[in-house]
């Protein structure tokens, strides 16, 4: 069984990937990154997922780098988090430049040091609208680059089983695997509960609806997602 390191943000996607690896492969550890993001809720929830799995959880501090990535609204001190559907153009402000490339490079170094066989990342098709480092072309290119970076040293696979799966499909897979969705965190704003209005809250709410899986999440605005979808369709001409 492939010993796999999983990047975990504490959200639905990476939690589902962690459970999938724990069931179908061999889970080495979860890795989260502190890059100076707006809040630490995601790291706290990643720790909860790791605890539920009985897995090791490492947090890599790259805050010194994060201070140079202030063009993103996800960075502490950046612009306000926009409301709306995750496919709308205003969500581009949430892009953290080169984030996945940076995190994957570090994770591959950790995996090679631990003699692990793979690094897992939970990018999915819903990310393709806005995030270039979640698209299949990036995953394929990074896989090729990393094979060269570790050539003759150690072979590490890039495991990304959800690249062509949508969020609803991941929720359905998570339900099958018994993922404790109530332990996951998606909201970009980091309040006491999910705001229900930011792009990732809208995506979360919609995914549970489309999958038919009960949503255990408490939202400050539980109905905004319908308005966001209607506005997106109007803007995109759908």
UniProtKB/TrEMBL annotation:
Listed cofactors: Zn(2+)
Pfam families in UniProt: QueC (PF06508)
Protein keywords: ATP-binding, Ligase, Metal-binding, Nucleotide-binding, Queuosine biosynthesis, Zinc
EC id: 6.3.4.20
Known function: Catalyzes the ATP-dependent conversion of 7-carboxy-7-deazaguanine (CDG) to 7-cyano-7-deazaguanine (preQ(0)).
Lineage top rank: taxon: Bacteria
Protein name (record): 7-cyano-7-deazaguanine synthase
Catalytic activity: 7-carboxy-7-carbaguanine + NH4(+) + 2 ATP = 7-cyano-7-carbaguanine + 2 AMP + 2 diphosphate + 2 H(+)
Binding site for Zn(2+): 187, 195, 198, 201
A single MF term (Gene Ontology): ligase activity, forming carbon-nitrogen bonds
Pathway, per record: Purine metabolism; 7-cyano-7-deazaguanine biosynthesis
Gene name of the encoded protein: queC
Recorded family membership: Belongs to the QueC family.
Cofactor note: Binds 1 zinc ion per subunit.
Principal EC category: ligase
A biological-process GO annotation: tRNA queuosine(34) biosynthetic process
Lineage of the species this protein comes from: Bacteria, Pseudomonadati, Pseudomonadota, Alphaproteobacteria, Rhodospirillales
Family annotation (NCBIfam families): 7-cyano-7-deazaguanine synthase QueC
UniProt-listed CDD domains: QueC-like
UniProt organism field: Ferrovibrio terrae
UniProt binding sites for ATP: 8-18
InterPro entries listed in its UniProt record: QueC (IPR018317), Rossmann-like_a/b/a_fold (IPR014729)
